[in-house]
């Protein structure tokens, strides 16, 4: 089956720093999303981004579908950005494939 | 606004009891999913449904069942709860195979 690798697995930032999270797929996926799981456990949609680039405030994402990867950029990080970031894609059969997540801690 | 809601949000039960977790979405999505999330395992698929009367087993379906009698609801039943089923459960839905995925708020189940 399709494998997903997220990197880095863990990341510690000082407030105000920028970061880039990466998601690599072993095969083509039909869509790609980024989620943030906050410290309270809620899974929050960040981007639905099958291809191209999107921006929402301090966050932006780029998916290069032909090269099977996606990047999530966090600029001027804040303590509220802490949590786990997941990427999710779907196979041709509709199976959802989750990355194992990047755990981000932003220190004040 | 359309949404997906789970209930109860927290439940404590005893081993052997039947438990049902509710999931209700108002997007009219065909596809609904149940996942469990445990430390060290990420999100694992329990059951899923692509429409009314359709249900399918996921990778960790033993001890769980679902039914889909309408588009909006996919209740998850633990026939005889076990301590190994202590977990956080998430319901999710999409409108189509490649559609945007939405999660419920999660249900934390503790089996004593």
Describe this structure in words.
The complex is a heterodimer of chains A (108) and B (112). In chain A, strands 2, 4, 5, 9, 10 and 11 form a 6-stranded mixed beta sheet that branches. Chain A has a 5-stranded antiparallel beta sheet with strand order 1-3-8-7-6, with no helix packed on it. The model of chain A has no long low-confidence stretch (mean pLDDT 93). The N and C termini of chain A lie far apart (40 Å). Helices cover 0% and strands 57% of the residues of chain A. Chain A has strands at 4-7, 10-14, 19-25, 32-37, 43-48, 52-56, 59-64, 69-74, 83-90, 96-98, 102-107. By secondary structure, chain A is mainly beta. Chain A is globular and about 45 Å long. Chain B is mostly beta strands. In chain B, 0% of the residues lie in helices and 52% in strands. Chain B contains no helices and 11 strands. Chain B has strands spanning 4-7, 10-13, 19-25, 31-38, 42-51, 54-57, 64-66, 76-78, 87-94, 102-103, 107-111. In chain B, the strands form 2 sheets. In chain B, strands 2, 4, 5, 6, 9, 10 and 11 form a 7-stranded mixed beta sheet that branches. In chain B, strands 1-3-8-7 form a 4-stranded antiparallel beta sheet, with no helix packed on it. In chain B, β9 and β10 form a beta hairpin. Chain B is globular. The N and C termini of chain B lie far apart (37 Å). The mean pLDDT of chain B is 94. Chains A and B meet through β5 and β9 of A and β5 and β10 of B.
